[in-house]
Each structure stands twice: as structure tokens, then as C-alpha cells.
Automatic annotation (TrEMBL):
<protein>
    <recommendedName>
        <fullName>Restriction endonuclease</fullName>
    </recommendedName>
</protein>
<dbReference type="InterPro" id="IPR019292">
    <property type="entry name" value="McrC"/>
</dbReference>
<dbReference type="Pfam" id="PF10117">
    <property type="entry name" value="McrBC"/>
</dbReference>
<dbReference type="InterPro" id="IPR011604">
    <property type="entry name" value="PDDEXK-like_dom_sf"/>
</dbReference>
């Protein structure tokens, strides 16, 4: 799904290594992170001001008199001061360094280990830091640190799943980087657009005015000839449950505003359940159905998802 929707940046992964050994999704993100950090180093890392208390040979900043007397009674050429320094040792780099350490531990014995060590050597030495979800939530990204965005997103995934000091529970690895509702919608849209059918148009997030400058937009709109079909995708296991009343009301509104013949609530499943299109009460022209589509074919993704959906609408014969 990530590959089809172009959310998985496979160009970030060394293709030569892919043919030499099996690579898991985790390896891909490890290498993606290393590539992002390498790029940041080449482009030039950002420095920041910070406050530091230390012995210096020239008086600068605020002299910490009590500590100065305690430490420098013999070394009168030194001054213990609190002063500002402008360097690479700040929170963003401390987070990236922690992620590098985790990759180093988990990649031992793999092709990534030597690359990780090389990146660590190029990366500046920074103070260790304890990181949790709140650390990422409080991060402030400005114009200068905007290029760090991708690296920090992947660092979040790595640290919150694998750091030994994280005790508040793991975050879902894919969900950290991807909204599965959005991914499922984009995947279905891509599979429908890949079908070459004369007269069929497929559009995603088409909007219509609703009320007071508010617009509504179904996930996918299909058109063939004079017929219109609306699809709203939901990434959740419906099971034996019925869709919510709010979802059905939403489909009714879509039917009205797009004058669609049929509206479909589409859920992923491990077993296909063909939809039964039923007319809304008092409105025989507009029908709605719930469809559960098996996203797998054995151990692989079902490549016929688009064709199956069109067959449900009576637009395609999958056995032809």
C-alpha cells in the first residue's frame, strides 16, 4: 500500500542491497533515517545558543564566585563562569543522536551497522538526553530547522518503539508516520485510477459547497456515462457491527449533493462481503451499501481491489 500510494520512498533505500538480502520495513526506515542525517550533515547542521557552566581561561559571562573559589584555588589562571556557547549540542541533535545509538544496537550484524557507525562519526558529539512522547510534542520547528522534519519523524518512530527508557507503552510504528484512514483511501483511489476503462473517470476528494462556505467531499467519486457513484473509505474492522448512523447520514448527503446512483461505505477485511445496495427510505433513486473487501490474496495484497469495486457497481466483469 505504501509503495502504490508513493508514501514509501523506496529511492531512499540502496537498491543493490535489496537484491542481496531480505529487508524488512524496519530496515527501510533505519536506512531512510541514516540517509536523512547524512544529508543534514552535508548541508550543514544548525547551531544554537545554550547556557554552559564551566572552567574557562578567559573571563566571560557570569563568574560563579563560590564554585570558582572551590575549583580554582590553585589554578588562578582559570575562571568558573556561566556563559553562552554557540554549538551543535542542542535538543534536536540530542534526539537524532539517541536514534543513531538505537539503530547501532539493533543493526549489529547487518549491512546497516557500518553505515550507522560512519554516520555517528560524522555527527557531532552531544549530551545524552531522556526522550518521551512529550519531548516530540514540545519541539518547536522554525525556518532554520525545517529540513530536520523528516529525520525527526523517523526518530520519533525509532525512539518511542525501541528506547529502553520508554515505559509509557509503544506507539504503533506505521501509525506514527501514516494515517491509515488516509493511506487506505489513497490506495483504493490509486487502484481504481489504474484501471483503463473507456468513459470512466475517478476523482478523489472532490468537493461541493454545503453551507455557509463549508464544503463537503466524499473520498472517491466515480462517473461513467450519466451515472455517478460515491465511495467513502473507512480503515477499521467492521466485523458483525453496523456502520454508524453518522456515516449513513453522511452517505445520504453525498447521494443528494452528487446525485449519485449508489454510495458505498468501504471497509478492509480478511473476507470479502459483497454489498447489498438498499434504497434510502422514501428515495428509491439513491442507494447505499456497506462493502467489506479482502485486501489480501494469500500472503500478498489483493491486486484486483479496483476491479472488484467496479464489479460491485455493475461496471466491470472481473471474469471477462
Amino acid at each position: 500500500m505504501l509503495r502504490v500510494t508513493r508514501r514509501l520512498k523506496v529511492n531512499k533505500v540502496g537498491q543493490a542491497r535489496v537484491s542481496k538480502q531480505q529487508i524488512h520495513l524496519l530496515d527501510i526506515y533505519f536506512e531512510w533515517f541514516l540517509n536523512e542525517v547524512e544529508l543534514l550533515v552535508r548541508q550543514g547542521l544548525v547551531k544554537k545558543y545554550r547556557t554552559k557552566s564551566d572552567n574557562v581561561k578567559a573571563l566571560k559571562g557570569k563568574l560563579e564566585f563560590a564554585t570558582h573559589l572551590n575549583k580554582n584555588l590553585i589554578h588562578k589562571e582559570r575562571f568558573y563562569t556561566t556563559h553562552q556557547v554557540y554549538d551543535y549540542d542542542h535538543q534536536i541533535h540530542q534526539i537524532l543522536a539517541l536514534a543513531l545509538n538505537i539503530i547501532s544496537q539493533f543493526s549489529a550484524g547487518t549491512y546497516l551497522y557500518s553505515k550507522c557507525k560512519r554516520v555517528q562519526q560524522e555527527f557531532p558529539e552531544v549530551a545524552p538526553i531522556a526522550v518521551n512522547a512529550a519531548t516530540f510534542n514540545k519541539l518547536v520547528i522554525n525556518r532554520k530547522t525545517k529540513p530536520y522534519g523528516t529525520a525527526l519523524e523517523i526518530a520519533r518512530l525509532i525512539i518511542l518503539n525501541f528506547a529502553p527508557n520508554i515505559t509509557s507503552g509503544k506507539e504503533n510504528m506505521l501509525a506514527l508516520l501514516f494515517d491509515m484512514n488516509s493511506l487506505w483511501e489513497e490506495y483504493v483511489l490509486a487502484k481504481l485510477k489504474s484501471i483503463n476503462m473507456e468513459g470512466l473517470t475517478v476523482k478523489g476528494q472532490e468537493s461541493n459547497p454545503f453551507w455557509n462556505r463549508i464544503r463537503i467531499r466524499p473520498d472517491i467519486v466515480l462517473r461513467k456515462g450519466d451515472s455517478t457513484y460515491v465511495i467513502d473509505t473507512k480503515w477499521k474492522n467492521l466485523g458483525i457491527n453496523k456502520p454508524s448512523t453518522d456515516d449513513l447520514r453522511q452517505m445520504y448527503v453525498y447521494n443528494e449533493y452528487w446525485d449519485s446512483n449508489k454510495a458505498l461505505l468501504l471497509y478492509p477485511s480478511l473476507e470479502t462481503q459483497k454489498p447489498d445496495f438498499i434504497a434510502f427510505e422514501g428515495d428509491a433513486n439513491h442507494k447505499c451499501a456497506v462493502g467489506c473487501l479482502n485486501i489480501l490474496n494469500g500472503n500478498s495484497l489483493n491486486q484486483k481491489i479496483g476491479e472488484e469495486i467496479l464489479e460491485w457497481f455493475g461496471l466491470y466483469n472481473i471474469r471477462q
